[in-house]
Amino acid sequence: MEAKNLHFLAILLLLVTNMSAITCASSASSSSSDDTNSNFIKTSCSTTTYPKLCNQCLSSYASVVRSNPWKLCNSALSVSLQAARNASSLVAALSKQRNLTKAEAGIVKDCIENLGNTIDDLKQSIKVMAQIGGSSSTAKNNMEFQMANVKTWMSAAITDEDTCTDGFAGRKVSAGVKSKIRSSIVNLARITSNALSLIDHLKY
Ligand SMILES: *[C@@H]1O[C@H](CO)[C@@H](O)[C@H](O)[C@H]1NC(C)=O
Ligand SMILES: *[C@@H]1O[C@H](CO)[C@@H](O)[C@H](O)[C@H]1NC(C)=O
């Protein structure tokens, strides 16, 4: 591995280490009447890969979710879509800077495309989840089919997010551009991975 790449990895690690502290600004602590609901979210989040981030992003949904795992997944998907839109507008803003090198501009353009696919996948998952949302009227085999689709779309979304950051590895992209996009997308990928993990725990 080139020294430059190692240096890049070191910067990335630093970024990643600091990530969970700065994302999904923790909401005001919930009132005591929300304790049961907050505990449900905390317990559910403890099964995900990034429990702290999960709890930070979802705790403000406690009164909506109560202790309904389907509603928890719907909230996790909305947060993920919100994060994807945030990342997308950040990258779109960067693409308008006139001082990007040709390589940077190309990477940024691919990234915008990948984030567009991510947003489509998340929207589709949200739509289908809202339709079936734990409803007993949905035939079991149809439910299984639809949930398999949702999991496929979510995995595709995560792959697109990873592709977006992979584009920067080992290429000449200025540190400022790299770190801004990186932190936004690492955040997004973690939030999406948490949502998929919560969906994986649904019983149907
Ligand atoms: C998206 O951006 C808005 C506005 O900056 C912010 O309030 C929100 O927390 C962000 N959401 C996520 C999930 O990053
Ligand atoms: C590119 O321009 C933006 C403002 O448009 C500036 O903030 C940024 O520092 C510049 N980057 C480089 C590498 O010159």
TrEMBL record:
SMART domains for the chain: PMEI (SM00856)
N-terminal signal peptide: 1-21
Gene Ontology CC terms: apoplast
SUPFAM superfamilies from the UniProt entry: Plant invertase/pectin methylesterase inhibitor
Protein location: Secreted, Extracellular space, Apoplast
Keyword list, A-Z: Apoplast, Disulfide bond, Secreted, Signal
Source organism superkingdom: Eukaryota
Similarity field: Belongs to the PMEI family.
PANTHER family cross-referenced by the UniProt entry: INVERTASE, PECTINESTERASE INHIBITOR-LIKE
Protein name: Pectinesterase inhibitor 4-like
Organism: Rhodamnia argentea
